[in-house]
Amino acid sequence: PRYKCGISKACPEKHFAFKMASGAANVVGPKICVEDNVLMSGVKNNVGRGINVALVNGKTGETIDTKFFDMWGGDVAPFIEFLKSIQDGTIVLMGTYDDGATKLNEEARKLIAELGSTSITNLGFRDNWVFCGGKGIKTKSPFEQHIKNNKDTNKYEGWPEVVEMEGCIPQKQD
């Protein structure tokens, strides 16, 4: 049998299936899929260097927005404004591509930590990271993977291997 987004098992009722992958070096962009809808990918041509973000309604599973923020050559201010504008009950999926950390400042890291991330404080130059959290959650998200950029263990010259993650996100209940 094939499950939504190609994950390994079906999600229980009142859960959204998701699968995501970080970018591969600076060659293949990240991919984010929720409920069998590919929200972001190189094929859709809506990914870019930095942090790629997909926002999903926590009740309906509908896509709210997809954006990417260049954290190497760009400015962190629009990213901070975007993070501040996320409404309570929104599912937030993030994946890095190329470099997602150089321009991150304390405020941006704190806002991402408030979405449930624990690795964002340690995210460094060219690390690979995928994360799924939510606005208004009071706990740390179980959905996070992080691989440090390390020249001794990198799979590609100058970059760590792709990090992938799948799971079932509980639907927001009133």
UniProtKB/TrEMBL annotation:
<dbReference type="Pfam" id="PF15711">
    <property type="entry name" value="ILEI"/>
</dbReference>
<dbReference type="GO" id="GO:0030246">
    <property type="term" value="F:carbohydrate binding"/>
</dbReference>
<protein>
    <submittedName>
        <fullName>Protein FAM3C</fullName>
    </submittedName>
</protein>
<dbReference type="InterPro" id="IPR039477">
    <property type="entry name" value="ILEI/PANDER_dom"/>
</dbReference>
<dbReference type="InterPro" id="IPR039220">
    <property type="entry name" value="FAM3"/>
</dbReference>
<feature type="domain" description="ILEI/PANDER">
    <location>
        <begin position="49"/>
        <end position="136"/>
    </location>
</feature>
<keyword id="KW-0964">Secreted</keyword>
<dbReference type="GO" id="GO:0005576">
    <property type="term" value="C:extracellular region"/>
</dbReference>
<comment type="similarity">
    <text>Belongs to the FAM3 family.</text>
</comment>
<keyword id="KW-0430">Lectin</keyword>
<keyword id="KW-0732">Signal</keyword>
<keyword id="KW-1015">Disulfide bond</keyword>
<dbReference type="InterPro" id="IPR039475">
    <property type="entry name" value="ILEI_FAM3C"/>
</dbReference>
